[in-house]
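Notebook B, p. 112. Complex prediction, attempt 2.
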Amino acid sequence: MLTLCGLIVIAPIVMIIGVLIVRGAPAINIEFLTQMPRAGMKEGGIFPAIVGTVLLVTGAVVVAVPLGVTCSIYITEYARDNLFTRLVRLSIVNLAGVPSVVFGLFGLGLFVIFLKFGSSILSGSLTLAFLILPVIITSSEEAIKAVPMAYREAALALGATRLRMVVTVVLPNALSGILTGSILGVSRAAGETAPILFTVAAFFLPRLPHSIFDQVMALPYHLYIISTQVPNVPDEIKYGTALVLFALVFGMNLVAIVIRNRIRKQKRW
Amino acid sequence: MRKLKEIIFEKAIAGMSFFSIAILILILIFLINSSIPLFRTVSLKEFFLSSLWRPISEPPKFGILPLILGSLLVTFGAVIIGVPLGVGCAVYIAEVAGDRAREYFKVLVELIAGIPSVVLGFIGMVIVSSWVRNLFDLPTGLTAFTGAVTLAFMVVPTIATLSEDAINAVPKDYVAASLALGATRWQTIYRVVIPASASGIFAAILLGFGRAIGETMVVMMVCGNAAVIPHGFFEPVRTLTATIASEMGETVRGSNHYYALFAVGLVLFAISFCVNLIADIFLRRRRGGA
């Protein structure tokens, strides 16, 4: 009975993967991945969308990882149980629950209009960075907490200051965990559509960006418009785009989760 | 000198941590600031209770009641489908599955949680909607029901993962005691495990609800986007999130329509804030009780 419940949850994912591969795989070849879209996106490839997504995600990670890791160091190593710490925790929980489209509105208000970055890679990356911040904080926190207390005590007993202990003992031991958390953040940022709708995404822009103030196409947004906004796009291209996006995100998650589980098992200090 | 460096470092990272509070406050400020101009011409009562959302007709109408009802319909549908599946899955993982099966299952659930919503929306459009149309003989397959089914798929991982945590937190003595008294495995799950983890499971369901009501792409692509008060489960509806996402691109900055969309965002923010706050309280109660 309960096994059935499990199967009902698993069956659709198997079906989705099957459908995407069967119908999307024929579309995928070197040309599809490296060429500009042509004829109003009804022909050609998805190269600019792939490049756009890579740029956006890189920008988001460069901002979010240092910020998130420092924040988690503070929470685990320094914070006392006071009002400030509780507020920080509460805001992280709430930040994780803010709807992605609201992040999009915020990005539009703050970066695009108020700071006058315009609809650009910079605005989009920063919006995505805020979105994945809770993901990175939570997973780094887990990684840092997993470092045994004895390590810290040993370092302190040897006369290390707290800062030195964090840098030479805690961080190196938590590094792999922080890394997997960052990969999870990357895949989350790569798959999100709503936050980039008004902050960066270009409908059709068959060239590569020149600066961080340019607009770009992005894979999730591209999939959205060719499946709802542009009539008569061949199914092959839609399924192909969906498969590329799915494989990218799914693959990164799989790698991150497998690495993390391996770490959890190995390190029985 | 060394001491000074330590103190500076501590203050610096405390400052960085303040950032997470600052972002939340900034989001709130921007939403409120951009919503206020709307309420100079539209009353709060009209905004929440009027049944017409016609932002570009003349005169424009900004009543978000149909959008709220649309969101609630789709979200409750998704939660109703998702709760038995998610909780069942959690019980299976925590109490029934063998070690190997448990490992694989947990990875799979996590992977499902990571599927981009736009891909699910696409699948909902091309596959689920045609099933719904044929199965119930409807003029269109893009309905609230289709949205709920597709969305349930996104809610299940949230509910399953968090419920499993709650179930694992039930002391093993309880289960052992129940089995020792002669209860069957099923009786133990039903009478001991689930009641003992009820507050955690409730928090999981709440967070699943929050996830569903904030989801944008699936509902925008699958629910048919008709901004009218829904009369049934098998009609097209428009949600709060889909309204923002589909209309923001076409508004004029500084128009009432633009402000109204920020106000819709504020409503969404308030809903998700309350949901998270209540869920957090229930999670704490669990920890306190265990």
